[in-house]
Amino acid sequence: MIRNLLKKFLYSLLSVLPIALIVTILYLIQIWTSYFNQLTIISSDLLIVFLVCSLCLVVGMTLFSIGADTALENVGKKLGASFAKQHSLLLVIALMFLLGLLIVIAEPDVTVLASYVPSSVINPNLIKIAIAVGAAIFFILAFIRIMFQKPLKLWYTFFFLLIFGFACLFGDKDGPIIDLSFDSGAVTTGPITVPFFIAFGVGIAGIRGGKDTSSDSFGMAAMCSMGPILTMMILGLVLRPTLKSPSITTEITMSHLLDCFLSSLQGIGIALLPMILFFLAYNYFVLKLHKNEIIRILSGFLFTFVGLVIFLTAANFGFIPVGNALGKGLAVSSKYYPLLFIISAILGAVIILVEPGVGILASQVEEVSNGVISKKKISITLLIGVSAAIILSTYRVIYAPTLSLLYYVMPIYALSFLLALIVPDIYTAIAFDAGEVASGLMASNFILPFILGISSTLDNSSSGFGVIGIIAAIPVLSIEIMGLYAETKTKILYMRARRHVIEPNDLQVIHFNIDEGDENEQ
Questions:
Q1: Is residue 470 within 8 Å of 438, Cβ to Cβ?
Q2: Contact yes or no for 174/417 (Cβ under 8 A)
Q3: Integer Cα distance of 229 and 133 in angstroms
Q4: 93, 219, 480, 517: which one has the fewest Cβ atoms less than 10 Å from its Cβ?
Q5: CA distance 316 to 321
Q6: Residues 441, 323: contact at Cβ < 8 Å?
Q7: Structure confidence by residue, pLDDT tens digits, 79-129
């Protein structure tokens, strides 16, 4: 236990360290050179707060990782396997809708995104409900798809065509609603939902069996992210809100720290409690697990709770203000734009290292693929994809604020669907899940505030939203390209092996089976 704790702590420390170094180096450049012309991007007080919050973030990630291993993944697999055995489809649908609501409302990323939208424009609770309902409906659809062995590619294609069809109902002035809708789908899959949804899919596929078990183990997280895009678009069509770039507070007072802590404590507590009660009730009537296993799972939920409270408090108090301050400071003059793009690329690499869900996905991919797809390959491919996404988002906010998000994501998804025709199903499923995993906690707690800071400084028509949607899209393409490369390489190796076997001069050993009777006759 202690060894596992230290291992996860070291991993978390190495993950957070790069982003802390970036901010510290920028602060030193700001102090020791005249490059910024006396411009104060990060104050000394804010830097100290940020560094302390970075350490807290490490502690929070460590505790959460332990909780995810012992609670969320464990519960997800058991519930998925149990639901797959039930004979009453209507009962399963009702339970899954309830479970989907509870899981998504518990997701911290959903709360963070809703908090960026002023309550005078759209009530944050209404945003959370719309996202949760959409995810719950598609949670059921994902279950049905796996149980009835329907092709994943066709489902993705159909529902994305439906999403783009809905988007065509909006006018030019409604671009921010489309941005917020795609962000809503992306934030659905965060530190709570990712380990649960993936483990749930593994549990279902393991019971159902069949030749597509490996590919069916993935894709559930991506399916669940499509529902919120549609429900938020419907909400936007009904309300027609005027959405602009929000202002983010950069207070570093003790009262603000207390507010962040109490808000995280209340939010995570209210979110996790119904999930725990649902599991205990279902276990009492159906699972009937051993007492020791129940205690182990509940202790995992406790680790998850404490870890997320620390993580969210540190993110809200230290990371969101710093991300926003960086965006605001570097956008004041075109002189800093090259540095802005360099930092965007670096941040893309860093958040993949920091993002808790990436490690969980990579481990499960490595396990299901029997080591063929290594964690290193997944991480490097995601790193490239997310860096490209943030650079593209920065360019969009600065140079093309009026250009709809659809002009960015539609070509990406079109290429993804074309590649899906030739890439094996397992890579397509992993690709869409990987895109959602990459758009997790750090995307909503650091990257989105960074882009919102740029947008608010430029004061153009861009709302700043949409960056998380782009982050979710590009890794899909990059993972599929990796899958195509791996598949091509495997086929070439097999071709070489076959050619070697049929060489005319090869020494071949032929084994004859001789019966004992024949041998005696000889």
A1: no
A2: no
A3: 11
A4: 517
A5: 7
A6: no
A7: 888 888 888 888 889 988 998 898 898 888 888 888 888 888 888 889 999
> What is the token pair recorded at 341?
């793009």
**Tokens representing residue 146 in the block:** 């796996």
Amino acid present at 159: F
Q: Which two tokens stand for residue 38?
A: 């006396």
Alpha helices of 117-219 — where are they, by DSSP H?
124-147, 152-167, 175-187, 193-208, 213-216
**CB-CB contact of 231 with 153 (8 Å):** no
Percent of the chain with pLDDT over 90: 23
Total count of residues recorded for the chain: 522
Q: Which of 219, 197, 201, 226 is nearest to 134 (CA)?
A: 226
Taking only Cα atoms into account, the Rg of the chain, rounded to an integer number of angstroms, comes to 25
pLDDT category of residue 425 using cuts at 50, 70 and 90: confident
Summarised one tens digit per residue, pLDDT across range 121-154 is: 888 889 999 999 999 999 999 888 887 777 778 8
Which tokens sit at 175? 């671009």
Number of CB atoms found within 10 A of residue 254's CB: 8
- The b-or-e profile of 336-365 (16+ CB within 10 A means b, else e) is bbeebbebbbbbbbbbbbbbbbbbbbbbbb
For the CA atoms of 180, 181, 184, 189, what is the dihedral angle to 10 degrees?
Answer: -130
The total of other beta-carbon atoms located within 10 Å of residue 496's CB is 10
Residue 504 pLDDT level (bands cut at 50, 70, 90): low
Q: Which of 145, 108, 112, 110 is nearest to 232 (CA)?
A: 110
Q: Let me know: does 190 contact 68? Beta carbons within 8 Å.
A: no
Burial degree of 501 (CB within 10 A; 0-12, 13-18, 19+): exposed
Q: Would you say residue 355 has pLDDT above 90? A: no
For the stretch 157-203, pLDDT in tens is 899 999 999 898 888 788 889 999 999 999 987 778 877 877 887 77
The 3-class secondary structure across 266-326, one letter per residue, is HHHHHHHHHHHHHHHHHHHHHHCCCHHHHHHHHHHHHHHHHHHHHHHHHHHHHHHHHHHHH
329 vs 229, more confident: 229
d(CA 260, CA 267): 10
Paired tokens of 343: 């930092």
Average pLDDT over residues 433-454: 84
**Distance in angstroms (rounded) separating the CA atoms of residues 390 and 394:** 6
| DSSP code per residue over 482-493 | HHHHHHHHHHHH
pLDDT of residue 510: 52
Specify the residue for token string 């989105």: 448
DSSP string, 501-518: HT-TT----------HHH
3-class secondary-structure state, position 117: coil
DSSP single-letter state for residue 72: I
Residue 325: other Cβ atoms inside 10 A? 22
CA atoms within a 13 Å half-sphere pointing along the CA-CB vector of 395:
11
pTM of the model: 0.84
